[in-house]
Specification:
The protein is of the alpha/beta class and 410 residues long. It is built from 14 helices and twelve strands. Strands 3-2-1-4-9 form a five-stranded mixed β-sheet. Helix 2 runs parallel beside helix 3, helix 5 runs parallel beside helix 12 and helix 7 crosses helix 10. It is globular and about 100 Å long. The chain binds guanosine-5'-triphosphate and magnesium ion. Guanosine-5'-triphosphate (GTP) binds next to strand 1 and helix 5. The site of guanosine-5'-triphosphate has 13 residues, from strand 1 and helix 5. Belongs to the glycosyltransferase 15 family. It comes from Amylocarpus encephaloides. It holds the Pfam family Glyco_transf_15. Keywords: Glycosyltransferase, Membrane, Transferase, Transmembrane, Transmembrane helix.
Length: 410
């Protein structure tokens, strides 16, 4: 009889325990993560010293501080990582077609995740045609700052009247035969001329002092935990790059002749202590074809809108090489920065890890890569390989190359 009572009591205990478990499970799973009503246990994140991210909110009274066994979405109620310093008068800028939407979406998402969600800078989109509603809807949803959409005026995306159309057409036919990349394209030439001389004149850009150019399908591999625009301003930088290389000679045979003509006509614009050593191996007689890759740029718009750059661009535009050859905006910007700026005004961002087909800049130095949570393979870094001009930049500026560069030369 006694053992019967014990068994009976055990059943009651089991039943009670089972009911308690069922109650616990049902009460914690009625709300769907991300539905906007779930309160996940507050688990304050450890902050790194010097981190600009806002501290996580402490758990409110009555909430458990036990870590969940699964990985929750970002807890509701925690403030987003934010930068509390003053914002710069700066914007991202992308030239794009409607058909570029998914490629530019990838770029935006990476910039937002690695940088802009903390700063919320604006983004200007420019196009030679009106942007469609899908382009606007998707990009607006991705950018944390305000988005602006602008159409480019005919004047900035067409042949100037002094261009001989027959001559330009023959050049395109010849380049097509010689299989020069984009050699037969008219729109590519308008694009290069626009990026060389006009993007900073667009009415939507006039309000800004600083820009960061972003192209479709780029990648960013490391966190950027400080305001790069503020860095540029505080350190008196006007132009910057992450990758440099030699330009295809066939696309710019007379670019340096026009540049020399400009130097002779406007000696007042040539900066003392410039970067001629980056551009030329014989004191300016010839161009060595080194340039900074302009699909990434952080730079100062007032410099581009100033008299020196305007005179340089107008000289080139009059000579017609955007159409009679296939001058790219990368050598144009680089030569301008190399001659019109003091060499200290150009900055190499080692800590901005970047990819645009087919080259990668992955920071040299393991500590930097680990601190910044980089996911690039250091073996892919192009900086110290034979076809890069970045060594030359270090040499003319008397900079020490980062530790470990010797192992990345081939
Ligand atoms: N609106 C517009 N944008 C263009 C046009 N052609 C190029 N672009 C944009 O101009 C920038 C440079 O063009 P890309 O095609 O990327 O040129 P690239 O970087 O030399 O060549 P890829 O190696 O193909 O990337 C990109 O932001 C393009 O989206 C065009 O005809 N119209
Ligand atoms: Mg591109």
């Amino acid at each position: 009889m006694a053992s019967g009572t014990a068994r009976y009591l055990r059943y009651i205990l089991f039943a009670f325990f089972g009911l308690a478990v069922i109650y616990f499970i049902s009460s914690s799973s009625t709300q769907i993560p991300g539905s906007g009503t779930t309160k996940w246990p507050g688990t304050p994140m450890p902050q790194k010293p010097g981190s600009s991210a806002a501290p996580a909110a402490p758990a409110t009274a009555g909430e458990s501080t036990v870590t969940s066994g699964t990985t929750p979405n970002i807890p509701e109620g925690l403030p987003p990582a934010a930068h509390d310093g003053p914002r710069m008068n700066a914007t991202f800028v992308s030239l794009a077609r409607n058909s570029d939407i998914w490629e530019i979406a990838r770029s935006i998402r990476q910039i937002e995740d690695r940088f802009n969600k903390k700063f919320k800078y604006d983004w200007v989109f420019l196009n030679d045609k009106p942007f469609d509603s899908t382009f606007k809807k998707v990009t607006t949803s991705l950018v944390s700052g305000t988005t602006h959409y602008g159409e480019i005026s005919k004047e900035h995306w067409s042949f100037p009247e002094w261009i001989d159309q027959d001559k330009a057409r023959k050049v395109r036919e010849d380049m097509a035969q010689r299989k020069i990349i984009y050699g037969d394209s008219v729109s590519y030439r308008h694009m290069c001329r626009f990026e060389s001389g006009f993007f900073f004149q667009h009415p939507l850009m006039k309000q800004f002092e600083w820009y960061w150019r972003v192209e479709p399908s780029i990648e960013l591999f490391c966190d950027i935990n400080y305001d790069t625009f503020k860095y540029m301003a505080d350190n008196k930088k006007k132009y910057s790059f992450v990758l440099s290389l030699y330009e295809y000679v066939e696309t710019i045979p007379t670019l340096w002749d026009s540049t020399k003509k400009f130097m002779k006509a406007h000696p007042e614009h040539i900066a003392e202590g410039n970067s001629m050593g980056f551009l030329s191996d014989d004191g300016g007689e010839s161009y060595n074809h080194c340039h900074m890759w302009s699909n990434f740029e952080i730079g100062n718009l007032d410099w581009l809108r100033g008299q020196a750059y305007t005179d340089y661009f107008n000289t080139l535009d009059q000579d017609g090489g955007f159409f009679y050859e296939r001058w790219g905006d990368a050598p144009v910007h680089s030569i301008a920065a190399g001659l019109l700026l003091k060499k200290e005004e150009i900055h190499f961002f080692n800590d901005i890890a970047y990819y645009h087909v087919p080259f990668t800049h992955c920071p040299t130095g393991e500590k930097t890569r680990l601190d910044l949570k980089c996911h690039c393979n250091p073996k892919d870094n192009f900086d110290w390989k034979g076809y890069s001009c970045t060594s030359r930049f270090f040499e003319i500026n008397g900079l020490d190359k980062p530790e470990g560069y010797e192992n990345q030369q081939d």
